[in-house]
Fold:
Amino acid sequence: MSEKIIAQNRKAYFHYEILEKIEAGLVLSGPEIKSIRNHDVTLEGSFILIRKGECFILNMHIKKYEYANYVAGIEETRTRKLLLHQKQIKKLGEEIQLKRLVIVPLKLYFQEGLVKLEIGLGRPKKLYDKRQTIKQRDLDRKAKSNKY
Structure:
């Protein structure tokens, strides 16, 4: 299982406590795939919604492929559909409503020639949790520098 990471949402791990991870496919067009292969994609600021029993990612920025002819309806931050099983979507919807959790995109990668998106089901961190994360990161960095 060769996995080539294209983009990561590093801030997601800082702002959210990720409880569960799920792999999802994406509905994309040809020029979008070419842009993704060139690493012209950003997950910062994107989020996932469930509408009418379907899962969508919003605000994922994929730069227009410069060598492609103009294709109508392909905008850089358009809403894209996620490919998940109905049971997974139903479970995610229940978790969001009952436990007040959010769905966050974590990373975008190629797996066996297909573009996959890893999404995380998480709980927003409180301010004191974020401070603890920063403190732990600084301690780890200091310990690592003293090691050498």
About this structure: The two ends are 35 Å apart (CA to CA). The chain has one domain: 3-147.
